[in-house]
What we know:
The chain is 62% helix and 9% strand. The protein is mainly alpha-helical. Strands 1-2 form a two-stranded antiparallel sheet. A hairpin with a 2-residue loop joins strand 1 (97-102) and strand 2 (105-113). Helix 1 crosses helix 2 and helix 1 crosses helix 5 (115-135). It is globular and about 50 Å long.
Amino acid sequence: xxxxxxxxxxxxxxxxxxxxxxxxxxxxxxxxxxxxxxxxxxxxxxxxxxxxxxxxxxxxxxxxxxxxxxxxxxxxxxxxxxxxxxxxxxxxxxxxxxxxxxxxxxxxxxxxxxxxxxxxxxxxxxxxxxxxxxxxxxxxxxxxxxxxxxxxxxxxxxxx
Length: 160
């Protein structure tokens, strides 16, 4: 039915043939992502006042996945090696991450959170989780699980 100028359920499509549901999703994701970027910046500064917003995601990844090669981190976040090196160097200078030789390849190193980095990050993360719990207090647990499942599905599709 896309050729007939209508979207699903008889709703009109816009001129580019995109269904209203996709347009609504795009709008909501744009708002969500704008707010998430702002919150990441705030949380990174709570970990340490000199951190840039992207640092918070690095903390999350290193805390969840453990020590990682810088090249693997760059690939995970979809940034260049130079960008990742600059971000990691700043975290190293603040004593929040450290590099250890990679036991699988002595020429490479693994980046890990230091005890201070882990403690600072987890304090901020726990406060953020408390905010989520309060925001979702009126939601049905099934709705929360479904939102998590759908976001996971969207994120998994983005990896291809």
